[in-house]
Amino acid sequence: MDIVQLMLSKGATNLDKALDAAEFCGNTECAKLIRAAMKK
């Protein structure tokens, strides 16, 4: 979760692979955070 928050705070925009990894690992909290960022 810390890594995802750091990426987003630094302006990461290509989040498709991060979302895939979070979903594959079953990390629903990270996946929710990434999806929310992708909607912006």
What is shown here, in short?
The protein has helices at 2-9, 16-25, 28-39. It has 40 residues and is an all-alpha fold.
Write up what this structure looks like.
- The protein has 40 residues and is mainly alpha-helical.
- Helix content is 75%, strand content 0%.
- The protein has helices at residues 2-9, 16-25, 28-39.
- The model has no long low-confidence stretch (mean pLDDT 95).
Annotate the secondary structure layout.
Blueprint: H1 2-9, H2 16-25, H3 28-39
Helix pairs in contact: 2-3
* Rg calculated over all Cα atoms: 9 Å
| Helix-and-strand structural type | mainly alpha
Overall mean pLDDT stands at 95
Distance between the termini: 19 Å
Q: Element order, helices and strands?
A: HHH
Please mark out the parts with pLDDT under 50 across 5 or more consecutive residues, or reply none: none
Record field, number of beta strands: 0
Instruction: Assign a percent range to the helix content.
Output: over 70%
Task: Choose one word for the global shape.
Answer: globular
What are its keywords?
40 residues; 3 helices
